[in-house]
Amino acid sequence: MTQSNTPPKRTLTLRDVSEASGVSEMTVSRVLRNRGDVSKDTREKVQAAAKRLGYVPNKIAGALASQRVNLVAVIIPSMSNMVFPEVLTGISDVLDDTPLQPVVGVTNYLPEKEEAVLYEMLSWRPSGVIIAGLEHSEASKAMMRNAGIPIVEIMDVDGEPVDAMVGISHRRAGRKMAQAIIKAGYKRIGFMGTKMPLDHRARKRFEGFTEALAKAGLEVADQEFYSGGSALAKGREMTEAMLKRTPDLDFLYYSNDMIGAGGLLYCLDKGIKVPKHIGLAGFNGVELLDGLPRQLASMGSERNEIGRLAAQIIARRSSGAEASEEDRIELTPKLCLGDTLKRKKR
């Protein structure tokens, strides 16, 4: 991995926006505070310059204007996804021993929502940012590069971070699961996932999965994607539809454990022998599903540890430590064969 990019020591000011837009600082201030009578052309010129630079106004007034508040902005795509509450638990466990407090923003996987949440949170001058993923809009990247605080991108290491990162390689996770399926002797493989083109981590897992299959001379024999609704119910529905459409499948790989659990329940209900007649696997290693009649093969995403390590980086850097290569951390997800994937033949 390459040397990390240390955030700038100096935070952007009104003067930077003034010089970039060719407009006086007073006019820039009026535009950014939405005050006063400013022409539409001037307003658009100032807003474009501020967005290009990544400038975020400071909402801390008076004597506090030069200070940071003891808040850590934590920006995640979803609260309904079981992954992120565990990440937040790890963050909170570490920050509980510091003066820092996490504040959470949710983006719903939408880049424009992420921009808005990031802008609002940075305007309060937090001590650091923990944000999910490595893919962001240019405006969001500019804001993070120029925030002058530690930024930790989490969950993924398949890419170049703005500053620090903690996560797993989702491409490697997909390849590792495919290799386990191939070694177990399965050949007719179906894939089921969610219709989320902006869930880059799920996309990378699928890319790694199909790459490993291709190297073994195999390909996904059938695939289906869903959006909305109960994941368990959708897992049952998609599994039924796929097995009716492609009855010779001998393995089903699900993009997450919840739809995988639905598929497992369908197979058990229909008397389909798992893993003898058909193997199943998901992703995330969700402990909630440990009470199923069979343990679903899966791969843990190291959620709690990711949160803990990200918070440790923020706490250390906010106390004055310099950025270092050690702030880029790749964790190795653990493969669990469970009861739904045959042990590889010896």
Structure explained in plain terms:
This protein has helices spanning 14-21, 25-32, 40-53, 83-95, 111-122, 138-145, 170-183, 200-215, 231-245, 257-269, 303-318; strands at 71-76, 101-106, 128-132, 151-156, 164-168, 189-194, 220-226, 251-254, 279-281, 298-299, 328-330, 335-336. It is an alpha/beta fold and 346 residues long. The strands form three sheets. A six-stranded parallel β-sheet has the order 2-1-3-4-5-11. It is elongated.
**Structural class designation:** alpha/beta
So how many helices?
11
The largest sheet, given as strand count, sense and whether it forms a barrel, is: 6 strands, parallel
Low-confidence stretches: none
Strand order of the largest sheet: 2-1-3-4-5-11
Question: Could you give the order of the helices and strands?
Answer: HHHEHEHEHEEHEHEHEHEEHEE
Strand content: 15-25%
Number of strands: 12
Terminal CA distance reads 36 Å
Q: Helical content, roughly? A: 25-40%
Please give the radius of gyration in angstroms.
23 Å
Large-scale geometry: elongated
Q: Give the overall average pLDDT.
A: 89
Features:
40% helix; 12 strands; 6-stranded parallel beta sheet; 11 helices; elongated
Quick overview of this protein structure:
The protein has 346 residues and is of the alpha/beta class. The protein is built from 11 helices and 12 strands. Helix content is 40%, strand content 16%.
